[in-house]
């Protein structure tokens, strides 16, 4: 039936992955309360009255810190499959992983020298 055999499970997975969010959003729309009172539209901060406006500007260092975190979080995502299959990959894959880690270390040193890791 399929031109590419062996991809039936992938197609099923993609269909399920697209149906789950659609069903969740549909269910939440049907089950949510429909009141439009002024109290319902106020900002909720742990049961306390909100202080100040909700639109404040954050320091750029917060975003830089978040970007550095994302970079090194992605590093673990790429290194985990490599570590699992390390015994089958051989020396060339080990050298490639070392190059990848070296590039990330250079990025960390660059971010450190630029002050992206300073929180104050």
TrEMBL record:
Transmembrane segments: 6-31, 62-83, 89-112
Top-tier EC class: translocase
Keywords: Membrane, NAD, NADP, Plastoquinone, Quinone, Thylakoid, Translocase, Transmembrane, Transmembrane helix, Transport
Gene Ontology molecular functions: NADH dehydrogenase (ubiquinone) activity; oxidoreductase activity, acting on NAD(P)H, quinone or similar compound as acceptor; quinone binding
A GO BP entry: photosynthesis, light reaction
Record's subcellular location: Cellular thylakoid membrane; Membrane
EC number: 7.1.1.-
Chief location of this protein within or outside the cell: membrane
GO cellular component entries: NADH dehydrogenase complex; plasma membrane-derived thylakoid membrane
Pfam families, alphabetized: Oxidored_q4 (PF00507)
Record bears the keyword NADP: yes
Superkingdom assignment: Bacteria
Membrane topology type: Multi-pass membrane protein
Reactions listed under catalytic activity: a plastoquinone + NADH + (n+1) H(+)(in) = a plastoquinol + NAD(+) + n H(+)(out); a plastoquinone + NADPH + (n+1) H(+)(in) = a plastoquinol + NADP(+) + n H(+)(out)
Record text on subunit structure and interactions: NDH-1 can be composed of about 15 different subunits; different subcomplexes with different compositions have been identified which probably have different functions.
Biological function: NDH-1 shuttles electrons from an unknown electron donor, via FMN and iron-sulfur (Fe-S) centers, to quinones in the respiratory and/or the photosynthetic chain. The immediate electron acceptor for the enzyme in this species is believed to be plastoquinone. Couples the redox reaction to proton translocation, and thus conserves the redox energy in a proton gradient. Cyanobacterial NDH-1 also plays a role in inorganic carbon-concentration.
Family membership noted in the UniProt record: Belongs to the complex I subunit 3 family.
Designated name of the protein: NAD(P)H-quinone oxidoreductase subunit 3
Organism per entry: Mojavia pulchra JT2-VF2
Upper taxonomic lineage: Bacteria, Bacillati, Cyanobacteriota, Cyanophyceae, Nostocales
């Amino acid at each position: 039936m399929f031109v590419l055999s062996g991809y039936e499970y992938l197609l099923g997975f993609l269909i399920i992955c697209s149906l789950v969010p659609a069903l969740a959003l549909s269910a939440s729309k049907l089950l949510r309360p429909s009141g439009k009172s002024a109290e319902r539209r106020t900002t909720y901060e742990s049961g306390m009255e909100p202080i100040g406006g909700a639109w404040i500007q954050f320091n750029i260092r917060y975003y830089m810190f978040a970007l550095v975190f994302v970079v090194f979080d992605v590093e673990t995502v790429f290194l985990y499959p490599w570590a699992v299959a390390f015994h089958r990959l051989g020396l060339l894959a080990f050298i490639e992983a070392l190059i990848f880690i070296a590039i990330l270390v250079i990025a960390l040193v660059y971010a450190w020298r630029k002050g992206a890791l300073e929180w104050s």
